Amino acid sequence: MTVKFGLLGAGRIGKVHARAIRSDANAELVAVADAIPAAAESLARDYGCDIRTIDQIEQSSDIDAVVICTPTDTHADLIERFARAGKAVFCEKPVDLSVQRVQDCLKVVKDTGATLMVGFNRRFDPDFMAVKAAIDEGHIGDVEMVTISSRDPGAPPADYIKRSGGIFRDMTIHDFDMARWLLGEEPETVVAQASVLTDPEIGTLGDFDSVNVILRTASGRQAVITNSRRATYGYDQRIEVLGSKGAVSAENMREANIEVATEQGFTRPPLLNFFMTRYIAAYANEIAGFIRAVNSKGVTPTTGEDGLQALALADAALKSVQEGRAVKVSEILG
Amino acid sequence: MTVKFGLLGAGRIGKVHARAIRSDANAELVAVADAIPAAAESLARDYGCDIRTIDQIEQSSDIDAVVICTPTDTHADLIERFARAGKAVFCEKPVDLSVQRVQDCLKVVKDTGATLMVGFNRRFDPDFMAVKAAIDEGHIGDVEMVTISSRDPGAPPADYIKRSGGIFRDMTIHDFDMARWLLGEEPETVVAQASVLTDPEIGTLGDFDSVNVILRTASGRQAVITNSRRATYGYDQRIEVLGSKGAVSAENMREANIEVATEQGFTRPPLLNFFMTRYIAAYANEIAGFIRAVNSKGVTPTTGEDGLQALALADAALKSVQEGRAVKVSEILG
Amino acid sequence: MTVKFGLLGAGRIGKVHARAIRSDANAELVAVADAIPAAAESLARDYGCDIRTIDQIEQSSDIDAVVICTPTDTHADLIERFARAGKAVFCEKPVDLSVQRVQDCLKVVKDTGATLMVGFNRRFDPDFMAVKAAIDEGHIGDVEMVTISSRDPGAPPADYIKRSGGIFRDMTIHDFDMARWLLGEEPETVVAQASVLTDPEIGTLGDFDSVNVILRTASGRQAVITNSRRATYGYDQRIEVLGSKGAVSAENMREANIEVATEQGFTRPPLLNFFMTRYIAAYANEIAGFIRAVNSKGVTPTTGEDGLQALALADAALKSVQEGRAVKVSEILG
Amino acid sequence: MTVKFGLLGAGRIGKVHARAIRSDANAELVAVADAIPAAAESLARDYGCDIRTIDQIEQSSDIDAVVICTPTDTHADLIERFARAGKAVFCEKPVDLSVQRVQDCLKVVKDTGATLMVGFNRRFDPDFMAVKAAIDEGHIGDVEMVTISSRDPGAPPADYIKRSGGIFRDMTIHDFDMARWLLGEEPETVVAQASVLTDPEIGTLGDFDSVNVILRTASGRQAVITNSRRATYGYDQRIEVLGSKGAVSAENMREANIEVATEQGFTRPPLLNFFMTRYIAAYANEIAGFIRAVNSKGVTPTTGEDGLQALALADAALKSVQEGRAVKVSEILG
């Protein structure tokens, strides 16, 4: 069955989802809404869909599901509203920057019985899925240690950082989700260190650009996350999992798989340096997973609970930095 | 301007081109023709186009260009016919298995002034394009030696081999084209060796499955091509170019870029093992290049002459094997 | 000038140093001492040197320098004794398991003006030296993050673990030294997490087998160390340094640089799985560095202070695990 | 039993063998002879051996074996002379540049029953041995295609080229030996192409600097050899073998296994660029193999026959270039 979509937000991530919907044989983009008319018009023209207001989409009987790509501070309200309207909801992470607000929102979702998927695109990357499959097929035995290196090519503008909730909630949150997924057991304790090394303005805004985090589960499994807002060589996204019988890792992606050899050495091109290019396949797989869940009335591959847990880890990491101690996730989730 | 396409042939390569046309913003697939009605119907349904006969397509004023994906022995006739009908023509290699027939056909194309592109998909592979760009930008100095390793995962069925014109005209022809492109100078002399190692039936059919060829240009540049019809580890497609200042190479593609480490060692997955998956981006770029040429009334990125030269090299290689000597390309082209 | 050596301890690490001394044109192995006569005899026969007691070596006027490879609990006493005897001293890490005892010992060394080198073999590995050179030559700009993955092929016997001082003082200590060397700034704060995952007996002995540590310097540079006592695929020793202009990393070493490709994928051999094989070049370079320092009466490339600082980081890491908080190195060094 | 050696020739390859003999527990270097007194003195001093004349070594009862490192035109005479004197003989390739002379010399060796090893160092390289072992253990099934890329960092001086016998007899001869070893079946037919691309002076001397050769055995197995006298990125030495069940390859060696990542890309150092450094382990293994053969009175791992066959392939390749045809090895060996 074709799932009919309304898209809320026509910005760059909105376009990524519009493209994913168009290329999926089981989906149709019916309408887009955006506060900026020109943005909505441009997207509607490129992807051949209607322009409607959010109110109209809420009341559209020809729309089954919405994709929320609006600013973060609108997410929780929109989730609640469309859950109540009986639409399936796909929302970009995070649900909200406040754990309490997320918990309240998820309660509404639960009460309405709505289908909610919170987007953690990396779980749908083909290479990372192959890593997970190798674990699930038993190739490395029991998981012991997860190592995640995640570095952006460069820091976002100050304006973005101000509203981002800080590096742990904005950037590391993806790695917290990956860690939970790969550990196969909920982290219990968090320690972290944070610095400002790439740009003093980030410090002025009260944020950090260079952080390391260690997560520990009840049984002693651990995950290490290392983040920087700057990697001159591109968008650096690596994972590695050590188990009792071996290890599995995923490598970075480059624009071209070539090598030039000269007197100076052997040089391969820098990494793909934009998250949309790097994760283009992941975004398509993610929407496909949502469509399957809607069609089968099943569980979405990533859930509101995943969004909550990742946010709680972010809050715990920040608290660990602020208080110089190991923080229990239970302190955050109360 | 949108180029409106008729597709001749709804087989597997026809579908590849249909998909490329659909995903190109400057192209529209108007109609498909196929001798087998079910094949035409299936493709028309999947890609939302009309079903017409070849005659109808020839006379359709709403069709600017055709893509010929019919059996090889129909190519030359169809090229001539659509050239005369004023359509731009994209034809899968080869134009014909006979050098004389190709020469006659190209004369018709020339006389009609038609746009003709002969498909050599590998030139449009992003990695191979990056190799060519590295050469053109001077990173390796003057080209001296080209090395091409090209191995299929497994031999095609006997029926296919019978009609294929033999390994040099069917498989090595792609490598001949790559060699010409990378050498930057026309090969003058060909020596080759050929064996049957993977399946005696191939020998019974008068063909080979394992060949090596050396090409030499007038100035002494050389290219080595090594082919096998069988590589258990996947579709093996590597190129390497040595120049006066260095070398550049392109690596194979895998399904996933992961590595599993155990007591037995470090293992990465086999190669992508199907040419359509391996060259999916190349096919899209190829059609895009054709569309640009049609729109600009310019030269196509690969031409009928390219088809002729590659075929002549194939004939020279076969003659070299048969006569145990170095063969000049001029002996073939007369 | 040839430096004449006495070797204290004829065990496996003693043999490594004997070989390094023999292969160095500026060194001569004069005598060996070992509590087990058979061990001393075997080494003396293989390397063509005398057998003497420790007392005799202390009084030998034909010996300039000693290499201490005896059990850890004898190191500090022997260092003091030979420093007082006017010999140059090379001692395997650690000087002692007690920070206080190390501090007392280093005071004696200082008072006698003796030359003391504490062995941290990894700094002399050619690949790691190339990493350091890349940093020092400015290729990656200012150092920001150091990542060290260090995993043993398997845990040592329980008997060894009992006397080892625990994983931080026995195994991670090498990584603490590498981190200090690569950070280029003294770590100030330590957080760590530790688990028992590979063998419950290790837990029974009060030790851990799986640890992660984050170090932070005053200016905010950070190092992450990840350790496991078990890696089925060999002796895993990787370093990576991120700087303001780029990153540099060193790869593992294998027995053979080959790859076998089959239907199952592409497989390279496991890693070299014994520290003496992995670091054979490092041990030779290390002794050569000591010889140069003795001959030039200069500073040794690694010092007693290096041994002290690495031990303090180990103690801080253990305290961090025990107390669930960030620990300052100054708390340890007092 | 310790094999006592006389070394004929104290040049750079003589030193390589002197070092290999010294580091072998089963060998002793007794004396060196060289026409240049200073060369003999220097080597004798460095390796602690006598200086004798060739006549004296021939008559020395305390010498079991000789290593011939004198100029090529003396090899055959010296082999015959020392074979008659009852010494075991290790001779650097080639025995002679004339097939007839080699055949005559091998007849003398056969008649005297002497032990003769002709040095083909590459067979003793640990990585290439691992490739051979993978084949012998059946990992790739039946051998079908061997691909050898062998490029020198730069051409030797004109004086050397004049006396070298040409690129096929001087450089490719190593690859011919490797091809025979890996094919596991004697090549029957040779085709080759040759050019002068790196330096016109090489052409003036009647030689080539860029050659490609295809070898074919009776059963159809093939080997491709690609050679250049210039590779700016170092000493390029790769082999790859395709079999019915898979493939195995060996990679190049670098000075350091590091990678620097910057905005410009990911760069690894150039290759080791000197054959003595690249093959240091091979030379040691080679002499060890000779010593084992002498001690066991067994067959040497490489023989005079190996030298003859490789030379015949070189002559066949040259004839193929000169006559523009496939040449049978039987035409050369008569």
Class of the largest domain in chain A in CATH?
Alpha Beta
Overall pLDDT confidence of chain A: 96
Secondary structure class of chain A reads: alpha/beta
- End-to-end distance of chain A: 41 Å
Q: Biggest β-sheet of chain A, characterized?
A: 7 strands, mixed
N-to-C SSE string of chain A, H for helix and E for strand = EHEHEHEHEHEHEHHEHEEEEEEHHHEH
Strand content of chain A: 25-35%
Q: What is the CATH architecture assignment of the largest domain in chain A?
A: 2-Layer Sandwich
What is the tally of helical segments of chain A? 13
What does the oligomeric state look like here?
A: homotetramer
Relevant CATH superfamily of the largest domain in chain A:
Dihydrodipicolinate Reductase, domain 2
Q: Count every beta strand of chain A, where a strand is a DSSP E run of 2 or more residues.
A: 15
Largest sheet, spatial ordering of strands of chain A: 12-11-7-10-9-8-15
**Silhouette of chain A:** globular
Q: How many domains make up the coordinates of chain A? A: 2
- The stretches of 5 or more residues of chain A where confidence is low (pLDDT under 50) are none
Notable characteristics:
homotetramer, Rossmann fold, Dihydrodipicolinate Reductase, domain 2, 2 domains, seven-stranded mixed beta sheet, six-stranded parallel beta sheet, 25% strand
Summarize the structure in words:
Four copies of one chain form a homotetramer. In chain A, helix 1 packs across helix 11, helix 4 runs parallel beside helix 5 and helix 8 packs across helix 12. In chain A, the strands form three sheets. Chain A has a seven-stranded mixed sheet. A six-stranded parallel sheet of chain A has the order 3-2-1-4-5-6, sandwiched between helices. Helices cover 42% and strands 25% of the residues of chain A. In chain A, helix 1 links the parallel strand 1 and strand 2. With 334 residues, chain A is α/β, with parallel strands linked by helices. Chains in contact: A-B, A-C, A-D, B-C, B-D, C-D. Chains B and D meet through strand 7, strand 8, strand 9 and strand 10 of B and strand 7, strand 8, strand 9 and strand 10 of D. Strand 14 of chain B pairs antiparallel with strand 14 of chain C.
